[in-house]
Amino acid sequence: MNDFENQKFCQSCAMPMTDELFGTNEDGSKNEDYCMYCFKDGEFTSNISMEEMMNFCIDKMVEVHPEIDKDEASSMMMEVFPKLKRWAND
Predict the structure, then answer these.
(1) Which of 20, 30, 36, 42 has the fewest other C-beta atoms within 10 Å?
(2) In the beta sheet, which residues pair with residue 8?
(3) What is the pLDDT of residue 2?
């Protein structure tokens, strides 16, 4: 298996995660499904829709990956976000 196959992604915002980016459960333990920006103390940090999350993440993705434009980022997110655990039942 390569590193990408072992890579964990936040199941809310799709950010690649490392151990230090894991969110926290109510008891303070690490939550490996969600990042610290989306999930803290057992709750989501914001009550937003999938579309709102995607719009927020598009700008961040373009900022981090200048080789990708907003249309490409949007297309990628339209493919990925509906499959993430947080949004799969919407």
Answers:
(1) 20
(2) 17
(3) 44
